[in-house]
From TrEMBL:
Molecular function per GO: N-acylglucosamine-6-phosphate 2-epimerase activity
Family annotation (Pfam families): NanE (PF04131)
Organism: Pararhizobium capsulatum DSM 1112
Catalytic reaction list: an N-acyl-D-glucosamine 6-phosphate = an N-acyl-D-mannosamine 6-phosphate
Top-level taxon of origin: Bacteria
Enzyme Commission number(s) of this protein: 5.1.3.9
Recorded family membership: Belongs to the NanE family.
Name of the molecule in the record: Putative N-acetylmannosamine-6-phosphate 2-epimerase
Keyword Metal-binding among UniProt keywords: no
Pathway: Amino-sugar metabolism; N-acetylneuraminate degradation; D-fructose 6-phosphate from N-acetylneuraminate: step 3/5
Key word Transferase present: no
InterPro entries registered for this protein in UniProt: Aldolase_TIM (IPR013785), NanE (IPR007260), RibuloseP-bd_barrel (IPR011060)
Function: Converts N-acetylmannosamine-6-phosphate (ManNAc-6-P) to N-acetylglucosamine-6-phosphate (GlcNAc-6-P).
Length: 225
């Protein structure tokens, strides 16, 4: 079965830790991935070559691999280079996700996609607008993710909720898309699926305990004011 079919209609959990997080160690990322699978996730999104390698030996569900590397002179940081693509493929990622936004970039979207294809992997183009999605799919991306909506200079007005408008636009344009970014409630995941998402990726709301804690702590402190 093709990787995308294994994840269709299911939940994928992004298991990542910020650099300053106490969970920022491969052993914790593997534990998060295993816990996600126990809970019913049908795939995981993992950052870093070493983490992908370790998670590959721990679970058999599909892995969406990325790197996060700041590049001089470019805002593109999710899997920015061909070298990242090759290392993730070698580490065992099934899908390689990369920044496909229309920003100044070290490697063109076309080159990234042809390398992912050459390595026999599926491609997920992380985009922030409909135009970026159209360009990625026309260039051969298997599917796009709404991952970067709200995170490019030209989409900063979208801040605290999933970008359902973008999802609806992608569906209308017949672009195969995955819903990712700021999904905190099961009802939001259901709404994304109803809008036509292939699958839904949830990160922080499941795997970032500091952010989850903050939500409750802030709610209680706010209540006392
Ligand atoms: C913008 C960016 O760098 N997004 C990253 C992409 O891998 C991750 O930091 C997010 O946690 C992930 O997209 C899941 O989203 P959320 O944590 O909101 O459920």
């Amino acid at each position: 079965m093709k990787t995308i079919e294994k994840m269709r209609g299911r939940l994928v959990v992004s298991c990542q830790a910020a650099e300053t997080s106490p969970l920022n160690a491969t052993v914790h990322i593997v534990a998060l991935a295993r816990a996600a699978v126990l809970g019913g996730a049908q795939g995981v999104r993992i950052e870093g070559v070493r983490n992908v390698q370790a998670v590959r030996s721990a679970i058999s569900e599909p892995i969406i691999g990325i790197t996060k590397i700041n590049q001089a002179g470019s805002d593109v940081y999710i899997t920015p280079t061909l070298e990242d693509v090759r290392s993730l493929a070698e580490a065992g990622a099934d899908v390689i996700a990369f920044d496909a936004t229309d920003r100044s970039r070290p490697v063109s979207v076309e080159e990234m996609l042809s390398e992912i294809r050459r390595l026999g992997k599926s491609s997920m183009a992380d985009i922030s607008t409909l135009e970026e999605a159209q360009h990625a799919v026309a260039s051969g991306a298997d599917f796009v993710g709404t991952t970067l909506s709200g995170y490019t200079a030209y989409t900063t007005s979208i801040t605290d909720a999933p970008d359902f408008t973008l999802m609806a636009d992608l569906a209308k344009a017949n672009i195969p898309f995955v819903a990712e970014g700021r999904i905190w409630e099961p009802a939001q995941a259901q709404r994304a699926m109803a809008l036509g998402a292939i699958f839904v990726v949830v990160g922080s709301a499941i795997t970032r305990p500091d952010e989850i804690t903050k939500r409750f702590a802030d709610a209680i402190v706010g209540e006392r004011r």
